[in-house]
Amino acid sequence: MRWLFALLLVLLAVPAWAQAERSALARVDMSASSLTAEGRDRGKPRPLDLRLTISQPVPYRVYFLDGPPRLVVDFREIDFSGSSAEALPGRDLVPALRWGRFRQGWSRLVMELPGPYALRMAQQKPAQAGAGGAEVRLHIEPVDAENFVTRGNALSALWDLPTPSVIAPGDPHRHTGRRLRIAIDPGHGGHDPGAQVGAIHEAALMLSFARELTEILHRAGFEVIPTRTDDSFVPLERRMTIARAGKADLFISLHADALPAGEAAGLSLYTWNPQADDRASRELAMRHDRDDLLSGVDLQGTDDQIADVLMDLARMDTHPRAEAFAKFTVSELNRAGIAMHRRPIRGAAFSVLKSPDIPSVLIELGFLTDPGDRANLFDPAWRAQTAQAIVRGIAAWAQDDAIRAGLSRR
Q1: What are the residue ranges spanned by the domains of the chain?
Q2: CA distance 385 to 338
Q3: How far is CA 77 from the centre of its chain?
Q4: What is the structure's pLDDT at 161?
Q5: Which residue intervals define the domain MurNAc-LAA in the entry (predicted)?
Q6: pLDDT computed for residue 60 by the predictor
Q7: 181-409: CATH architecture
Q8: Contact between residue 402 and residue 170 where contact means Cβ atoms under 8 Å apart
Q9: For residue 2, pLDDT beyond 60
Q10: What's the whole-number average pLDDT of the chain?
């Protein structure tokens, strides 16, 4: 098979919560990267092996161009600043090699080749020999001109590659005609620190995770509407107003609460359910609750009974969509090996979920009162895997939601 073009989407790592202010872009480890050739140099093109060790896995795509023959690798995204392509061990094996950022969200490596080549192997795996991060390895072999397939004249998928971690993330939604907008709501803030265990405050922890999640969403092509970007108090009504003003397609509230030891552990997702009879859910709802939120419908001059009817009618569309998102996300979290509550999808009367016009889900990333959850919440690898699984859940849900929107219009 001719190997021309690949779009590889793999799990993205994110920085530790304590380093949330810093860039989470991958960086090249030049000491563990190289370009090597097979066989003796007899004046003819030889098979080449390119290995790049980077600080974290990134999505990438590979293709060839002609005039002159070139291998092009687009990464989303590596920060090449401070790393000279000329310093790569084995650089003298090819006529030219350069890399750098070429547009928003993407970096590019271009390697001029001594003749036509074909891609025989591409993989991304954990870095070897104790090095951190990941290793991207590309193996290319010389071919004759007839078998030199460039991006301009064919498109074929590579075999044996990882399943895409995000499905068509940047594509316009069929219902809205634009990229999806995700409202990210870090719980609490300001004079409301949320759950506290020792010196740990839920509000600060969720703000740092929200920043990490936001960066991954941006890389995946989604638009993000944050309800708060610093340690400030934002009333629940205002959070939904921000989401609505930004025309959010999905609202995700992030929390890490506290309950008496042994009562709750593991990640879980909540959708709106005022009749929830689970004791832990009721207790959490009381902790979260503020003034009632009647948004999305003009309820001035109506009595409570009419208001309830109007809200329930509006939720006939948004609530099933919220539940569908929860199911897609739980599926992705399971695939990522993230430990969850024995009932990962539950209902609760959280006021922040009341909005009838935006599918809304509250994610309890864990409980600060549980030692295992607490360790996870401070583990960069766990946070990275969890954030990426959530993004994959959003992408899968978006695709399904777009298809259902198209069918309902018919």
Answers
A1: 6-147, 181-409
A2: 8
A3: 13
A4: 28
A5: 240-395
A6: 85
A7: 3-Layer(aba) Sandwich (3.40)
A8: no
A9: no
A10: 77
Longest Cα–Cα distance of the chain, Å, equals: 88
Long-range contact pairs involving 197-206 (C-beta distance under 8 Å, separation at least 24): 197/258, 197/368, 197/369, 197/374, 200/368, 200/374, 202/255, 202/256, 202/257, 202/258, 202/368, 203/231, 204/231, 205/17, 205/256, 205/368, 205/377, 206/254, 206/255, 206/256, 206/365
Residue-wise pLDDT tens digits, 118-151: 999 888 888 776 556 888 999 999 999 888 888 7
Q: Tokens representing 63?
A: 């293709």
Instruction: Record the tokens describing residue 168, joined without a space.
Output: 């068509």
Q: Which residue has the higher pLDDT, 133 or 345?
A: 345
Tell me: pLDDT of 169 over 60: no
Nearest to 49 by CA among 89, 6, 86, 106: 89
As a CATH number, domain 6-147 is: 2.60.40.3500
Q: Are 243 and 253 in contact (CB under 8 A)?
A: no
